Amino acid sequence: MTMPPVRDSVASAEEALSVRASHVRERANWMRRRLLAMIVEAGQGHPGGDLSATDILATLYFDILRFDPAQPQAPGRDRFVMSKGHCTGALYSALAGAGFFPEAELDSYLRPESRLNGHPNRTYLPGVETNTGPLGHGLPVAVGIAIAAQIDQADYRVFVLTGDGELQEGSMWEAAMLAGHRGLGQLTVIVDRNRLQQGARTEDTNALEPLADKWRAFGWDVVEVDGHDPVALLQRLDAACLPRSRPLCIIANTRKGKGVSFMEDQAGWHHGVPNAAQYAQALAELDAELVA
Description:
alpha/beta, 5-stranded parallel sheet, two-stranded antiparallel sheet, 9 helices
């Protein structure tokens, strides 16, 4: 049998990556539009952090994670923990888009007795692995999940998305130290490094840099990536799924409010609701992005 030239194989791999990235971009754009609609209808929310995390969540839920929404508790599923639990607009839109519950239910966001409350609740909603909201809880729980996988010799992967301001919590570094000590190679932490927290910049509040060196000192492998580039995210997360002997931290450099010009890199949009004119502008910008 004649083997195809190496250049053809490379071209095919590049084409496949381009197709995957295009799908992620389309889903991320849909998520941005959907979460903004949810926040406007609810009259509250955290659009800045939702938008900075959207490309990461779209890459995970529409390409990387192994799951079956019809069997959300299947033992072999990958586990995802949303440690920055206040950013439910992005999480819920990803879960609905992935088929865990009907998209129409997004219209109930933050209403009384809705399953879609301000912080994710695993008792209410399929696809939520653990309740989060108080910052500093998600990574410790995820480390416990990864230890269970290690003990059981299970092959599922554990992914965590954390905010960078959240890394000022001591519980995060206790968990990081344990993960490094245990060599939890199936654990990947993604830091949404938008450099803003509620009301201020992270470096003005409690400086995190040199952030990569801190993770390495705790026994982790570390890579950095543009958190809004689906191609780069796919490449890093594909590599994260390969067998490893150490936990991995992906520092995803992002912009708070990404995709909406007046929200980008503005601490004031940590939480807030766009007015009618701002909402129309946001949708117009997202429409333009979709056809660009």
